[in-house]
Amino acid sequence: MMPAANLALGSVDRRLLIAAGTAAAALAVLTAGPAGAQDRLSIVTTIAQIGDLTSAIVGDAADVTILMGEGVDPHSYQHTRTDMVLLNQADVVIYNGLYLEAQMEDLLHHLGERKPVLAYAETLPEDRLLPSVDYEGRADPHAWMNARLWAEGVDDVVALLSEVDPDNAALYAANAEAYLAELDAIADYAEATLATVPQEARVVISAHDAFNYFGDAYGFEVLGIQGLSTESEAGLQQIESMIDLLVEREVGAVFVETSVADRNVQALIEGAAARGHRVAIGGELFSDAMGSAGTYEGTYVGMLDHNVTTITRALGGDAPAGGFQGLLGAAS
Question: CATH assignment of 191-314?
């Protein structure tokens, strides 16, 4: 992977957000003004998936700060005063969009009135976005679960960075080309490895609906106990319905997520056991957050490698314990 000092932002005019208003407390900080001239570009991203690709593109030419780290749920994340200072001082801000950072949306729109702010997932082809099951008229924000789709936004980041920092345009383009090759490689591995899972076993049940793009890309039925947002509550009737599915279809494994409490998954396991059907935890998946910074699983490629390998092995497919590069530390 590329070094982790970086930045990225939206370029095309249609991607620059101009929206009104934010909370008074946020406004007081944001209008304080930038921190002064800097020799290096300063970029802030909300989620680590975007921070990883931005870092890969800029290499050592810029500084990248990620607001939400390991185990953080972006759906419910509330920005802090420190976050507002970082955002205010940044030259460029990149976030996912599609209502993933729901609690920060007004703040991010306000920032777009005075500096480059890119909603990365909103640069992706609209005809390939999946609909939200929670919010009418919105798209599912978890597009990073499909590596080939996620790669579609890289050129927008390169274009913006080249506008903001033309002296490094050639570097950004070369780094992006290398990063896209990594995404192509993990996509090839995912397609080949997941194809070994028996057709009847291709059901991924997890804590919330973060895996719809995964299912669409690789031919799996995916079911989340909660909706797309972790703010959604799973009702008793919904849990009972999923227990029925586990028993009737003899599903043998369900998955927990690193950024979502596992109480509803445990309720499924206990409910199925009460009806004489044993269900195991197939593993812990990365959904809204990646692994620890500085680890393989803390990179976008490592996150996908972990998920693909864990799901494949849990559902009866053939995958090496160390993943496609032999770097996984947790796959079993």
Answer: 3.40.50.1980
